[in-house]
Design goal:
Layout (H helix, E strand, L loop, with lengths): L1 H14 L2 E2 L2 E4 L2 E2 L2 E3 L6 E3 L3 E3 L4 E4 L4 E4 L5 E3 L2 E5 L6 E5 L6 E4 L6 E3 L1 E3 L6 E4 L4 E3 L2 E2 L8 E4 L5 E3 L2 E3 L5 E3 L5 E4 L2 E5 L4 E3 L4 E5 L2 E5 L4 E3 L3 E5 L2 E3 L2 E2 L8 E4 L2 E5 L2 E3 L2 E3 L6 E4 L2 E5 L2 E3 L2 E3 L12 E4 L2 E5 L2 E3 L2 E2 L6 E4 L2 E5 L2 E3 L2 E2 L6 E7 L4 E5 L2 E3 L2 E2 L5 E5 L2 E5 L2 E3 L7 E3 L10 E2 L5 E2 L11 E3 L4 E4 L44 E5 L2 E5 L16 E7 L11 E5 L5 E4 L9 E7 L2
């Protein structure tokens, strides 16, 4: 009788699926709590969380789908792992993923790893919280697929090695924050919705048919990096392809993207408006030699679209046609407080290496900007080629070669130095200057202005003052004149001896290293027993207050050696 009881108990244990620290889930409805002690959970059929049920999954649980099974959530799913102990979903074959269908908006999928799923997460009329997850698979429907009126809150997720990253067709607005999407075969983010979405603090990189593809609606990117993406198939937009509606970038970097056989290496926009504020657009490439219309645009391409750029820097972009920085065909372009430097193109039919403005009805306005060092391959290649209506004022043009600054419809009087500006520098009737902007280090892409730059205070005097309370500067970055400069070095230090003391004497320092007048607060004297020392606070032996420029080092001659350094200080 005892032996028979043992057999019955073993059979019961197998029937409820628990044996040797694992749990078998045969399929059907699931609820309750899946614990780490019962892990792994081996799923052998399609499973569903009923609309009236809740399934809790604890940190450390491994869920294995032993076939092409689906996991449908109509009720509540609380799969909340931790950073140290995540929840893992995997399959021995490609499985269906976690499908939220008409589920309440209080479900959570947090600190989970989802592998080998056809679509890791689907949100169909559902609004779960999807956060801190790693997804390393996904079909053309994406690693996250949002449809109908789904509106999940997506943050801090990493998506890689999927066919598509996030695919949003839902009619609801989107908020996506701090995600990384990389190494995706198609688009990192495909927006096919008439709604509006905001993507912030995210990186989209190494995607192979545009990092972002928007077919409608409005998208806003804030503090994002879009880099190293390509598009070899769809005509334009290596980093971002935008059709219809508006797209906005604030504090974003768009770099090293490419559109082979297309337009807009960084951003390609058609039938809409693209707005850029405080953005860096650099190192992008477009090869527009194969498909009409030949627009170009290594950095940005606008076709039947409008572009607005403010406080942006465009540099080192290349177009294998024209418009290394920007190309626009039919629309309007506004550029204010931008620096456009070292862009290049082979120019083709529209000889503009930095900006190409195509079409008689196209308008462009350039103000308070610097356009410099742009290069075209042929002798008539200028920085700007214009077929439309161009207004350019309070800007600096410098060393655009070989053909100069503007070709095509050139504003009357442009480049004729017949007046002077606020700085008393020669300029044309539009207050454009043609002088070296004197960047801090343009060879290493530092486009801040130095104190002696002619672009300082040379912008439109009717424009809002710079933060330092002075007239606005040209270019992306204003020079802060309220900050003290670096005092000039003391080069005439003399030393004399008197008994056991040394006497140090030097000339008054009245300017900074840029030649601007300063008022020195004090002179600090440093001493060491070795030459060529770098003064540190511990080497200080005293100070002198202006107007004094003398210091006595008592009993210095009792020491074997003594070397001095005197520095002027502004406080």
């Amino acid at each position: 009788m005892g032996k028979k009881s043992v057999i019955i108990l073993l059979a019961l244990a197998l029937a409820i699926g628990i044996a040797f620290g694992q749990t078998t889930i045969p399929g059907g409805y699931v609820s309750g709590t899946w614990t780490a002690a019962g892990s792994p959970y081996n799923v052998q059929g399609n499973i569903t969380v009923h609309a009236d049920s809740t399934l809790h999954i604890e940190p450390g649980v491994q869920v294995n789908f032993l076939g092409a099974y689906s996991f449908t959530v109509n009720g509540f799913l609380e799969a909340i792992g931790t950073q140290a102990d995540s929840i893992r979903f995997a399959g021995t074959a490609t499985w269906g993923g976690v499908n939220f269908v008409n589920a309440p908006d209080t479900s959570h999928l947090i600190y989970c790893r989802i592998n080998n799923a056809f679509t890791p997460v689907t949100c169909n009329n559902s609004d779960p919280v999807i956060s801190h997850n790693l997804m390393t698979s996904g079909s053309i429907q994406g690693a996250i697929y949002v449809l109908n009126s789904g509106s999940p809150r997506i943050s801090d997720c990493i998506i890689s090695n999927a066919s598509r990253g996030i695919y949003w067709t839902s009619s609801a607005n989107a908020t996506i924050d701090s995600c990384v999407i990389s190494n995706v075969y198609y688009q990192g983010f495909w927006w096919a919705s008439s709604a509006s979405g905001t993507i912030s603090g995210s990186t989209i990189s190494s995607c192979h048919r545009s990092g972002v593809y928007k077919t409608s609606g409005n998208l806003t990117f804030i503090d994002c990096t879009i880099s190293n993406n390509t598009n070899n198939n769809d005509g334009y937009g290596g980093g971002v392809r935008s059709e219809n509606g508006n797209i906005t970038f604030t504090n974003c970097t768009i770099s090293n993207d490419s559109a082979y056989r297309g337009k807009g290496g960084g951003v390609g926009c058609r039938n809409g408006t693209a707005t850029f504020t405080n953005c860096t657009i650099n190192g992008n490439f477009a090869d527009d030699r194969f498909s009409l219309p030949y627009i170009g645009g290594g950095g940005i391409s606008l076709y039947r679209a409008n572009g607005v750029l403010s406080h942006c820097t465009l540099f080192d972009n290349f177009a294998a046609r024209h418009g290394g920085g920007i190309a626009i065909d039919t629309g309007s372009l506004s550029i204010d407080h931008c620096t456009i430097d070292r862009n290049e193109s082979d120019c083709g039919m529209y000889p503009g290496s930095a900006i190409v403005i195509i079409g008689g009805g196209t308008t462009a306005d350039i103000t308070n900007s610097i356009i410099s060092n742009n290069y075209g391959w042929f002798s008539n290649d200028c920085a700007i080629y214009n077929e439309g209506t161009l207004t350019v004022q309070y800007s600096d043009f410098y060393h655009n070669y070989p053909g100069g600054d503007i070709n095509g419809n050139r504003p009357t009087g442009f480049g004729v130095l017949d007046t002077t500006n606020y700085n008393s520098d020669s300029c044309d009737v539009y207050y454009n200057i043609f002088m070296n902007p004197m960047f801090v280090d343009s060879a290493n892409w530092d486009y801040h202005l130095t104190a002696g730059s002619p672009c300082v205070d040379a912008g439109d005097p009717l424009f809002a003052y710079d933060p330092d309370g002075t007239f606005t500067d040209m270019g992306t970055y204003c020079f802060d004149q309220s900050a003290p400069g670096i005092p000039s070095a003391i080069t005439d230090l003399t030393i004399s001896c008197d008994s056991l003391d040394t006497h140090l004497l030097w000339s008054t320092v009245t300017t900074d290293t840029s030649g601007n007048p300063i008022t020195v607060s004090r002179y600090v004297i440093y001493a060491s027993d070795g030459p060529f020392f770098v003064p540190a606070s511990g080497d200080s032996i005293g100070f002198a207050s202006p107007p004094d420029t003398i210091f006595v080092d008592l009993n210095a001659l009792t020491l074997p050696k003594r070397f001095y350094n005197v520095k002027a200080v502004i406080e």
